[in-house]
């Protein structure tokens, strides 16, 4: 059974940094792309970033490009999102999701979500 | 970026009703469209991918169709457990984009 468990969310001041992690189990992690998607309070979904199974290909939404870095450790089955220079509009629940072979594919499993609150 | 316009934003229907939710893409995306269900306090659930392929384990009352850049999610007979918010997602290219969501309630 596929499990995705996130950690690392919390309260951070504007301009600060935070690192989210997602621990995966129940599938061959290195064979699948992974994504981060966020949902601001009372809003819809926004794709944030994706990474290929091998980690060699990454993609970002314009809103986070240059501030966020996605990475993965296939030896530990973990996915990370390093978030720097955080802004109030980054406040959201962040979800990691398992995609298919490529970044631009559907996500068949999602984690529960972790709240990132950027506030002074 | 490809914009996904989803309608309606909310609907209320009776148990047993046929419910239709629509997503329109701002440009051609072939059949690269997925539908997700979000129940309160629950993880997102994939319902349909490739516009009309039902994900394993999803009840057959859910179906998807496409006509050009218009995509439809249909619940053939609404059940109480279908109360949720539904989202479409374009995955034709990055950035992946979502519709604004449709909140489905029971009348």
Describe this structure in words.
With about 120 residues, chain A is mainly β. Chain A contains no helices and 11 strands. In chain A, strands 2, 4, 5, 6, 9, 10 and 11 form a 7-stranded mixed beta sheet that branches. A 4-stranded antiparallel beta sheet of chain A has the order 1-3-8-7, with no helix packed on it. Chain A starts with a strand and ends with a strand. The model of chain A has no long low-confidence stretch (mean pLDDT about 95). Chain B has no helices and 11 strands. The radius of gyration of chain B is 13 Å and the shape is globular. The interface between A and B is medium-sized, with 23 and 24 residues.
List the topology elements:
The complex is a heterodimer of chains A (120) and B (107).
Chain A: E1 3-7, E2 10-12, E3 18-25, E4 34-39, E5 45-51, E6 58-60, E7 68-73, E8 78-83, E9 92-98, E10 109-110, E11 114-118
Parallel strand pairs in A: 2-11
Antiparallel strand pairs in A: 1-3, 3-8, 4-5, 4-9, 5-6, 7-8, 9-10, 9-11
Chain B: E1 4-7, E2 10-13, E3 19-25, E4 33-38, E5 45-49, E6 53-54, E7 62-67, E8 70-75, E9 84-90, E10 97-98, E11 102-106
Parallel strand pairs in B: 2-11
Antiparallel strand pairs in B: 1-3, 3-8, 4-5, 4-9, 5-6, 7-8, 9-10, 9-11
Provide a concise account of the structure shown.
Chain A has 120 residues and is mostly beta strands. Chain A is 0% helix and 48% strand.
The number of helical runs of chain B is 0
Kindly report how far apart the N and C termini of chain A lie: 40 Å
What ranges of chain A have pLDDT less than 50 throughout 5 or more consecutive residues? none
Report the radius of gyration of chain B as a whole number of Å: 13 Å
- The count of DSSP E runs of length 2 or more, i.e. the number of strands of chain B, is 11
DSSP helix fraction of chain A = under 10%
Order of helices and strands of chain B: EEEEEEEEEEE
Global morphology of chain B: globular
H/E element order of chain A? EEEEEEEEEEE
